[in-house]
Structures are given as C-alpha cells and as structure tokens.
Amino acid sequence: MIGSVVHAFESVTSTQELAAALAREGAAAGTVVTARHQTGGRGRRGRSWWDAPGRSLLLSVLLRPPGPVAQTPQLSLVAALAIADALATAAALRARIRWPNDVFVDDRKICGILPEAVSGDGRSVGHVILGLGINVNQTEFPDALATRATSIRLLTGRPYELVPLRRMVLEALDQRYARWLAGGFAAVRAECRRCSSTLGERVRADGGVEGVAVDIAEDGALLVDTGGGVLTRVVSVPADDTEAREVANDAARH
Ligand code: BTN
Fold first, then answer.
1. Which residue from 61, 97, 138, 163 has the fewest beta carbons nearer than 10 Å?
2. Are residues 36 and 156 in the same domain?
3. CB–CB of 93/155 below 8 Å?
4. The whole model's pTM is what?
C-alpha cells in the first residue's frame, strides 16, 4: 500500500506541503511525495531541513491510521524501525533510534522524522504526514551539522542510487506499518527497545523532566527515572497540530 502512488519532483518548497494538499484533496493512504531538493525543507520544532540537491531521500508519506490522535507518535518509532531495516538491507548499517524521531549510526544523525497530524472527528486521526529525510550521498555537511550528521555514503564509502533505495525504504515502512496496524504498538515495542540509543541515557525533555530513560511504555511514551525510581512519562507530540498536542499532554499528566 505505501508507495503504490509516488509523486516525484525535481524541486519543491517542502514535500510536507504537497502531501498535505493531496491529503486535503482526498488522496489515498500510502501516497508518497518525494523530491530531489527542497527550498523550504522543514525540520521539527520549526527548524529548517537542509539538503544537497539530489543527494538525499526526501519523502512525505500520507497515512490514514485508525484510532486516536495520541497514538500518532508511535508512527515515528514505526518509521524509525523501517529506516533501520532499510539501512541494514541496503548498506549493512546498524542504526539506532533516538526516541522518538531520529535515526543514528555511529552517534551521528542519518535520518530525521517529522510526523504531522491533522485531526479528524473527535479524537480520531484524520491523517498523518510522515516526513522522512535520509542522508544518502552527501560527502560534506554545512558547518553547523558537520560534527552531528552522517550519510550512507560517508559510512560505506560508496554512492547509492536513490530510486532503488527509496523503494526499499517504502517497502520496509509498508511492512512495519502493517504490523503496527494489525498488532498495535505491542507488535513493534520489543524491537524499539532493542534498537534504542536512548534507553540507559540521561535525558532532558520539554517541561523540565530530567533523568535516566529506562523504558519505552506500552503506548510508546518514554519512561524516565527522575530519581529514586520515580518514573515519569514523556510523550512526544506530532508537529503543527494543537489538538494533538493537548491530547498528548493530557495523556502525559495521567
Ligand atoms: C527533523 O529531524 O527535524 C525532521 C526532519 C524531516 C525532514 C523531512 S525531508 C522530507 C519532509 N519534507 C520536509 O520539509 N521535511 C520532511
């Protein structure tokens, strides 16, 4: 289902924008927008997403999952696992997931994930646009990223063709997403834990929660030991959707 329709462009402002427009027009779940370059690529927290034209995979995947909007952040973890699968298959790389939205290899970021949710009626998800930026053939990065980012080419010493790689990523995402649809977060939780670079680390989350990340909860929240075994739930929220933020924060308080 995912990737059976792919709209491919040379250059766009942001694939997220085009996917959002297609979603509003009723495009089918699984529709993908991709481009070789973005002039206004979006990252999380209002940041921009830099790319070197033709050297990365820039993808926005339209999903229409059933269920409440508070489940949406689980999709970032599902996508991160799929990216890890594809990196292993295509390039024999062992990727780790930095909860909730980043994929790292050798302590450097290789992929960023931007989930943007638009609510439907009540508390069901209208649609989610999963933005994926995967560093493939970059051989250098701007100064601000140079010590923190990496690419498949830098790690393996050879270039990769983007289209076959895109197919692999979408196929892996399709499989992981199907598992999540059928079995919920329980179906991917163990692997999220196994691939996590966050568990065991000291973390500081929005809202001032600080401590050691000890587990990923049944719903995908991060459980942080803030001292003396007191566990605090940290919930990630999809971008740009006020209702989702409120629902997720609500969930975090309970
Ligand atoms: C992050 O780590 O901040 C998330 C980055 C997400 C970037 C991707 S690239 C394809 C899609 N289009 C965008 O404008 N952003 C996402």
1. 163
2. yes
3. yes
4. 0.91
